Amino acid sequence: MRPPRLVLFFCALAAAASPAFAKVDFMKQVKPILEGACTHCHGEKEHKGDLKMISLDDMKKGGENGAGLVPGDLKKSPIYTTLLLEADDDDVMPPKKEGRLVKEQIDIIKQWIEQGADWPAGVVLSETPRANFVKHIQPLLEENCVSCHTPQKHKGDWIITTKKQAFDTGENAPNIVPFDPEKSAAYHLTSLAADDDDLMPPKKSGGPLAKDQVTMLKLWILQGAPWPDEIKLSPKEKKATNNNPDTVELVKKIHDFIVATSKEKTEGEMKEYTGSIPKTKIPYSMLAIKGGEFTIGSAAGEKGRQDDEGPQAKLKIKPFWMGKFEVTWDEYEPFMLTAEGRNKDGSRKVWAPTDKPQDLISQPTPPYQPMDFGMGRNGFPAICMSQHAANKYCQWLSAQTGHFYRLPTEAEWEYAARAGTKTAYFFGDDASKLKDYAWYFDNAPNFQYAKVGQKKPNPWGLYDIYGNVCELCLDQYYADTYKTWSSQSGAPGNKWIPSKTPYPHVARGGHFDDDPEMLRSAARRHSEPGWKQQDPQLPKSIWYFTDATWLGFRLVRPLEIPTVEEMYAAWNNGVQKE
């Protein structure tokens, strides 16, 4: 017996209405949108309008204009109402220059607030890159996919010239499922192995996509696959790419070599050692630094203290080795000066996959003048390299020795410089004693750097940790870095702050032209564009700081071997375009 027509009508009406009232999944739908579009301006480090969007309490508390979120009340929730403002309105969020959210994303936020803004206890937001369709996804699809998936030529029955077609068509449909990459064939097929028959785009058509392209495609889907309705795609010729062998695959080979070579597993097995660079036979010495806890930053009453040296924070440091001396020209110059033809990014113009890993690493293009500026080379510290150049030297050395070398984190540097002390200098607070340990303005020979290792070392045996040349660290510089650390008792000091912009990066220790207060253990300095003001290249070189004739670095080797991805990140940090 059939149910009455009225019952069928209401059943159909309920079925049609159900998607609008489906429970919004905060973790899967709301969190990715907020992390991609909001937290970079309203996060832990920067909170415009005094509004933080890290936790539910932050959102409710709001900022200088009152509450940011009132669960159940759209009109009193600026995190929703600012999404609806005109593009040119000063208060529109996200700002016009960053691009507005699409209707589907706004609807998710709307429904979430209407449903009471459910937010699982303990969940906090982090910051992730925002996938911009026009900037990141449209070129990827137009250069790699559209030519085979048009109304005229629709392989796999998939058409991607319009948003509706891209989402709804295809024998593997749904090809794009907002917020769910694993159910999206458009992502899944691009992440297959290079020799898989189902790989998209196929190997013969230029596949696989670069790792960063696959990552961005996944991120775009995670953030709801925003695609402005008015944009239609058309096939575009793929832009020429630089055939650079210095990839994550190369790092994997180096990682395997390091895992097989490095024998020390515990802190007790760590000892000082002198190694040599296999390619040049040049020696270098590394000191074992035991792990421990220390207080970073300076006390409020310390003479010469700057605001960015506080608040003080307790950090836990894992064991590592550190260069006994600053890296010298003897060590660095064979890396910097090669006879190979190189592209501007330092990649070899002619190479073969069978070349040794150290020969495939990007290396500096030839400088326009001797970078020691006449101050001396044999036994003197190498200078004027950018952070990127120092990182690549660490990779080059690692590939030859089987030990993972990198720049020190800012926390590792201060931990090693202090050597267990809490005073302004490792020898106390009396700056008059500095002449016994460092080259600085008052005693630098001819107002330039000196050969390494001529002054007394610090208590842990590190020479020239103060003065001579300032030393690059791995971290991006923020004036309020310690504010975050101070709220995390015992925070891991071997973690580093990755780069988002080309400037500023941290440099420590002071140099031969500095006054004593800049040589204190807590004193901080940061890179800036003026460090390469005289660079004649356009765009300016990624390899040289032509005006930082007092800048060098020393090596760190952590006991704990990181992952391939962590190695790649450390060796490729600091190369963002200016």
Could you explain the architecture of this structure?
The structure is a single chain. The protein is globular and about 75 Å long. It contains 16 helices and eleven strands. Residues 1-20 have low confidence and may be disordered. A hairpin with a 6-residue loop joins strand 1 and strand 2 (283-289). The chain is of the alpha+beta class and 578 residues long. Helix 6 crosses helix 9 (211-222) and helix 10 (248-261) crosses helix 16 (564-571). It has helices at residues 5-17, 26-37, 56-61, 78-81, 103-114, 133-144, 163-168, 185-188, 211-222, 248-261, 329-336, 357-360, 387-401, 410-418, 481-486, 564-571; strands spanning 273-276, 283-289, 292-296, 313-317, 320-323, 470-476, 491-492, 505-508, 524-526, 551-552, 556-558. The strands form three sheets. It has a four-stranded antiparallel beta sheet, with no helix packed on it. It has a four-stranded mixed beta sheet with strand order 9-8-6-10. A three-stranded mixed beta sheet has the order 3-4-7. Helices cover 25% and strands 8% of the residues. The protein has three domains: 21-114, no CATH class; 133-222, no CATH class; 270-289 and 317-571, paralog of FGE (formylglycine-generating enzyme), CATH 3.90.1580.10.
Summarize the structure.
The protein is of the alpha+beta class and 578 residues long.
CATH superfamily of the largest domain, by name, is paralog of FGE (formylglycine-generating enzyme)
Terminal-residue CA separation: 74 Å
Order of helices and strands: HHHHHHHHHHEEEEEHHHHEHEEEEEH
Return the domain count: 3
CATH fold call of the largest domain = paralog of FGE (formylglycine-generating enzyme)
